[in-house]
Write a structure and sequence with these properties.
This protein has 21 helices and 16 strands. It is an alpha/beta fold. The protein folds into four domains: about 120 residues, Rossmann fold (3-Layer(aba) Sandwich); about 170 residues, Rossmann fold; about 90 residues, Helicase, Ruva Protein, domain 3 (Orthogonal Bundle), CATH 1.10.8; about 60 residues, Arc Repressor Mutant, subunit A, CATH 1.10.10.60. Helix 1 crosses helix 5 and helix 14 packs across helix 16. The protein starts with a strand and ends in a 15-residue tail after the last helix. The structure holds adenosine-5'-triphosphate and magnesium ion. The site of magnesium ion (MG) has 3 residues, from helix 8.
C-alpha cells in the first residue's frame, strides 16, 4: 500500500482528502504545519507528498526547494488557494510534480496521486531486489543476505548507521549503497577518513573554518558537513578520531547544528551519517580512547560485515565478477578451474574482498593460460604472501605480518612501500632474536642472518639497538 503524506492547516480539507485517498486504497498520514510534516518525514518517507502553500509556520513552496535536496525522488503535489499563474510557475520551478488550484475536484487529486505513484522511483526494497548485475554489493551467502535486509530497512530514513568489519570487507561500499539507494542520492556522498587526516586538522576538515581562524587559513573553507549538505557524510575509521573531535562531533549530532572553526553562526547539519570502523570500538571505549555516548549515538543501526572467509559460498561469484571486470577493461579473459576455486575457498583472506579483487587482477595480467588452475593461484599467493625465515622460528609471525600489511591497503601499497614496511617491522625483532639466541654475539648473529658483521653494526646503529658485545674468543668478536 502506498503512503501519502497530506499537509494542510485546514482540518476539514485534511479530512476530506484523507477519506478519498483511503477509499482509493492508499495509506494516509496527516500534518497541519511544516513542523509536523518534517516530523512525519523523519519517521517515514511517504510515496507522495500533498501540501498546501500557506501554512502557519511557513510557505510550502519554499519548503519544497529544501525537500528537493533531501528527498529528490519524492513527488510533491501542491494545493493552493492563491490560484494565480505565479503560484503555478513557482510550483513548477520548485520542482513540484503537479499543482492543483483550490477548490479542486477530489477525483483530480486522486488521479494526480496515481500518476505521481506510477512515475515514482521503485521503492528501496524493489531496487535492492533488482538484477544482481546492477547492484554494487555482490554475494548471496546468508551472512550477506542479513546485511542486505538491514540496508533495505535504513535506506529510506536518516538513521545513523555504524558499519564494522575487517579491512576490505566492503564497509565503504555499503555506505555508498545506502546513499545511492536512498532519497538523498541526488545530493553528494562525502567521505572523510579519520586515520588519514592530521589530528589537529580534523575539526577544520569536518566543520570548515573561517578566514584567519588559524595560521594559513587564508579564506573561508566549507567543511565536509557543509559539502555533504542534503546528502550523506561517511565518517571512515571513526575509531581513530581524536577525543576532542569526538566531543565536538557528539555535540553536533545532538543539536543538529555546527559552527565552523573560528565561526559563530550555527549551520544546520543536513546530512545522513554513516560511520565505519575496523577496530573493536568497545575495547577503545574501555581504554578511554572512544566516547561511549558517541558510540551509542552512532550505533543506532549496526551493520557488521562478515569476513570473506565466513562467506565461502560467495568466493566463486566474486572471483568471476573481478575476472570479468578485468576482461571488460581489455585484459585477457580468464577462467578458474575447480582446483583453483577450492584453493580460493580454503584461503583465509586476511585482506578480504579487496585481497581477492587484487589477486584476480594480478592473475588477469600475469597468468600464462586462459584457464587458471590451483598451481597458478598458489604461485601468486606465494609471491604476495609467502615469507622467508621459517628456519629462524619466526616464519608464521612474518607471514602474518605481511598478510596484515598487504591486506590493509593492497591497492594503495606499491611493492616498494610494502617492502619498506615489512623490513621496518621485521628487522628489529629479527636482529633482536638472533642476538638473544647467540648470547648477543654480533659475529654469530651476523652469520646466522647471512650478513657481514659491519652490515649488522650499521643496522644496529640505525635501529638504535643496544650493543653490549659479548666476546666469543674469536679475534673477530670485538
Ligand atoms: N560484496 C562485495 N561485492 C563486490 N565488491 C566488493 C564487495 N565487498 C567489497 N568489495 C570490493 O572490495 C574492495 C574493498 O571494499 P571497501 O573499500 O568497501 O572495504 P572497506 O571495508 O572499506 O575496507 P577498509 O577497512 O580497508 O577501508 C572494493 O574495491 C570493493 O569494491
Ligand atoms: Mg574503507
Amino acid at each position: 500500500m502506498s503512503q501519502i503524506l497530506v499537509v494542510d492547516d485546514d482540518a476539514a480539507i485534511r479530512t476530506v482528502i484523507a477519506q478519498s485517498l483511503r477509499r482509493a486504497g492508499h495509506g494516509v498520514t496527516l500534518a497541519a504545519s511544516l513542523a509536523e510534516a518534517d516530523a512525519a518525514l523523519s519517521r517515514a518517507v511517504p510515496d507522495v507528498l500533498v501540501t498546501d502553500v500557506m501554512l502557519p509556520d511557513g510557505d510550502g513552496l519554499d519548503n519544497l526547494r529544501h525537500l528537493r535536496a533531501s528527498h529528490p525522488a519524492l513527488p510533491v503535489i501542491i494545493l493552493s488557494a492563491q490560484n494565480t499563474l505565479s503560484t503555478a510557475v513557482r510550483a513548477t520551478e520548485a520542482g513540484a510534480y503537479d499543482y492543483l488550484p483550490k477548490p479542486f475536484d477530489l477525483d483530480a487529486l486522486t488521479s494526480a496521486v496515481d500518476s505521481a505513484l506510477a512515475r515514482a522511483d521503485p521503492s528501496p526494497a524493489e531496487r535492492l531486489g533488482q538484477d544482481e548485475g546492477a547492484l554494487p554489493l555482490l554475494g548471496r551467502s546468508p551472512a550477506m543476505q542479513a546485511v542486505y535486509r538491514v540496508i533495505a530497512r535504513v535506506v529510506s530514513n536518516d538513521l545513523t548507521v555504524l558499519v564494522s568489519g575487517e579491512s576490505g570487507t566492503g564497509k565503504e561500499l555499503v555506505a555508498r549503497a545506502i546513499h545511492d539507494l536512498g532519497p538523498r542520492r541526488a545530493a553528494p556522498f562525502v567521505a572523510i577518513n579519520m586515520a588519514a587526516i592530521p589530528r589537529d586538522l580534523i575539526e577544520a576538515e569536518l566543520f570548515g573554518h573561517e578566514r584567519g581562524a588559524f595560521t594559513g587559513a587564508a579564506a573561508r573553507t566549507a567543511g565536509r558537513f557543509e559539502q555533504a549538505a542534503g546528502g550523506t557524510l561517511f565518517l571512515d575509521e571513526i575509531g581513530d578520531m581524536p577525543l576532542d573531535a569526538q566531543t565536538r562531533l557528539l555535540r553536533v549530532l545532538q543539536s543538529g547544528e555546527f559552527t565552523s572553526v573560528g565561526g559563530a553562526r550555527p549551520i544546520r547539519a543536513d546530512v545522513r551519517i554513516v560511520a565505519a570502523t575496523n577496530r573493536d570500538l568497545t575495547s577503545r571505549i574501555s581504554s578511554g580512547q572512544f566516547r561511549e555516548d558517541l558510540f551509542y549515538r552512532l550505533n543506532v543501526v549496526p551493520i557488521e560485515l562478515p569476513p570473506l572467509r565466513d562467506r565461502g559460498s560467495d568466493i566463486s561469484l566474486l572471483a568471476r565478477h573481478f575476472l570479468d571486470g578485468a576482461a571488460a577493461q581489455g585484459l585477457s579473459h580468464r577462467r578458474l578451474d575447480d582446483g583453483a576455486l577450492a584453493l580460493l575457498e580454503a584461503h583465509s583472506w586476511p585482506g578480504n574482498v579487496r585481497e581477492l579483487e587484487n589477486l584476480m587482477r594480478r592473475l588477469a595480467v600475469l597468468a600464462r593460460d586462459e584457464v587458471i588452475d590451483a598451481g597458478a593461484i598458489r604461485t601468486m599467493l606465494d609471491v604476495a604472501f609467502e615469507a622467508p625465515g621459517e628456519d629462524a622460528g619466526i616464519g608464521p609471525a612474518i607471514r602474518a605480518l605481511i598478510n596484515r600489511i598487504a591486506g590493509e591497503r593492497p591497492g594503495a601499497l606499491d611493492d616498494g612501500t610494502l617492502y619498506a614496511r615489512v623490513i621496518d617491522e621485521v628487522e628489529r625483532p629479527l636482529i633482536e632474536a638472533m642476538l638473544a639466541r647467540h648470547g648477543r654475539n654480533q659475529l654469530r648473529a651476523a652469520r646466522a642472518l647471512g650478513i657481514n658483521r659491519n652490515t649488522l653494526r650499521k643496522r644496529l646503529d640505525s635501529l638504535g639497538i643496544g650493543t653490549t658485545r659479548v666476546l666469543d674468543g674469536n679475534a673477530d668478536a670485538g
